[in-house]
Structure formats: structure tokens, C-alpha cells
Design brief:
The structure is a single chain. The protein has 322 residues and is α/β, with parallel strands linked by helices. Helix content is 56%, strand content 9%. A 5-stranded parallel β-sheet has the order 2-3-4-1-5, sandwiched between helices. Strand 2, helix 3 and strand 3 (58-63) form a beta-alpha-beta unit. The longest helix has 21 residues, at 234-254.
Length: 322
Amino acid sequence: MIYFFYGDEEFNISNEIKKLKSNLDKNFLEMSYKEFNNPKFPDLISAVSSQPMMFGKMLVVIDCIKYFKSKGEDSFDDKQLKQLEEVLESANENTDIVFRAISDPDPKKPGVDKRKKIFKILSKYNPKEFLQIPSYKTAELENWIKMQCKEKDVKINADAVSQLLLQVGSCLRLLDSEIEKLKVFAGGKTVTIDMVREICVNNEDLFAFIDNLIDGNILKALEEYQKLLMTTHPLSILFTLHKDLSAKITMKANAKTKSADEIAKIIGWHPYRTKLQIAKLKNVSLKNLVKLKENLTKAEYRIKSGQSNLSPEREVEYALLQ
């Protein structure tokens, strides 16, 4: 089976792939699960033609966002696209292939252009678009929280759902992480608003940390960071930081050429909140924002790849101080 997952909500795309991965034989994961990062055309054809090494299924995930560039070495000509079509049509029935195109909120980065020929080709194969839920769509976000809790067999009061959204924010990955914490903390009991207040990350602390960091108040930022570590894993903090910095970089890069309403649509924020943030960023350097995001990206890579000699907490702290 071939799938085409695209959009800007990375968490939901990851969940879909996780479901497919759960069908694989756990004893042979190294051979039956492969990922490719925007491979060159010959490697792409090879990946699509993959054959299971053992009995059972194989899952191949191909990141393909760069293929949607208007031109350049990552885009394909008509002859190559024709060959890709032919190979897809004859793909092994025991190999599941997922084309994954995660868009960046930054409009300067390549997104999924639905006018491209490659989009029309991939759209023949179980296409599904995953879009971030804007923070102002509280009813939709609360329904998502209820569904996640039901899936994880977590009982939760309606007021606790509202408090969780208010306290944690609209980041689905972070919300999911907090639901997992609440499941353990509640121990089978119904999650209450007091439990959420006691155990879950507080967005006020998180945003105070980010604001101090961006304003250059490093000592105060580190103080807030230590508070966050009491309830939040460094990778969860990193994820929220990346998302917030991406939005702020987009704001700063477009503030002179686009209105606040236009920028709000790009990043999925409420227009009023966007206007306030643009004003706060007036004296903040775009170069410094980009450098901070690059430092944090490197720190995340070192943590996830196991190449760091430091603990995750110290690795993030070192990135903040650079």
C-alpha cells in the first residue's frame, strides 16, 4: 500500500506512521523499517522498489518536501516523473510506502504545491492532509484532547480539558505528552482540574522563559528553564521552542511586507495575538532568532542521535548560552 501524508501538523502525521509501524514484526524492525530523507532520484527509485527481507510486511517512509521546489536539483523532469509513476504502479504488495511532506510555517521554505505534477502523482495513493489546529479554535482542540484521552483510556472532567488547553496551549505533541503524565498521575481515577494545575507544564512559565530568552535576559531565562524542568522533559521544551521560534522568525521576516492579518494566516495564530507579538519583536534581531533556532536544532540532533556527552538538560542549556 502507498500513502501520501502532507501538511504542517507533524504530530498527527507521526501518529499515522506509528500505527503502520506497529504492524511490523518487532524482531526484524531494523530490516523491515526504512526512512529516507528527500533521496536523489536514483535512490528514490531504489527505495520505492524495496523488497521485504523476511516474511511479512516492510514499511518505507520517504520525506519528500524538497520535491515540491519550483526548480533545482531536488525537482524532477517529466521523464523521471513518468518513471516514478511506473515504479509506483508495480510496487511490491508487501511493502507499505509513505511519502511524507511536512510543511514549514516559514513561507520562504518549500511547501506542498498542489499544482506540481508530483503532487498529482502522489495524490493517487491514499492522500491525507494534516493541518495544525489554530490556537483560537478552542472547541476543536478540546475535542482533540477528549479523543486522545479516550484512546489512552484516560477519564477526564470537562473543566480539566479546558484547563489543560489553557495551561499547555495548542501544541498537539505537548498536549499528548501531558495527557500521558496525567494518566500515570491519576492512576485510573478521573483527571480533575486540580491534577492539571499540579502536574502539567504551565504555558505562562514557558512563555516567560521564551520571552526572557528572546529579550536577551539569559539569567532570568535560565531561572525559568530550571522551573520548567521540574515538570517537563527537555525535548518537550525544545519542541515548543522550535514551534514558537519558527512563528517569530516568520513574523520578523514578513513584518515589513505583510500585514499582521496576513502573517496570522501563515502561522495559524489569532490576528490580535500576532499583532502583539510583532510589536514585541520590533527591537529583536532576525539574525539572533535564526541563530538561536539553529543552536537548538543542533542540540536536539545531538540528543536524539546519542552523540551528546551531556545530559539532555545540559545540552539545551548549553545551546541557550551560545
